Amino acid sequence: MNVAVIGSGYVGLVTGTCLAEIGHCVICIDNDEKKIETLEKGEIPIYEPQLEELVKKNMDKERLSFSTSIKEGVF
């Protein structure tokens, strides 16, 4: 399933990553360009056990991506 998560803060990032981990194709959208640039580099701005590894794993498998464009979240 294709899923768009609006907001890439603590709740959105963890939710999006967990959905990607169970096999969904997820795009996390946020209007904070700096945050999206950081996430696209695989750098995680919050601490949650194993989150960094899960983000990188799912980005590598192309199940998790990030954008500032709400249009990219409309499937």
From TrEMBL:
Residues 1-73 form the UDP-glucose/GDP-mannose dehydrogenase N-terminal domain. It holds the Pfam family UDPG_MGDP_dh_N. GO terms for molecular function: NAD binding; oxidoreductase activity, acting on the CH-OH group of donors, NAD or NADP as acceptor. InterPro entries: NAD(P)-bd_dom_sf, UDP-Glc/GDP-Man_DH_N. PANTHER family: UDP-GLUCOSE 6-DEHYDROGENASE TUAD. This is UDP-glucose/GDP-mannose dehydrogenase N-terminal domain-containing protein. It comes from marine sediment metagenome. The lineage of its organism: unclassified sequences, metagenomes, ecological metagenomes.
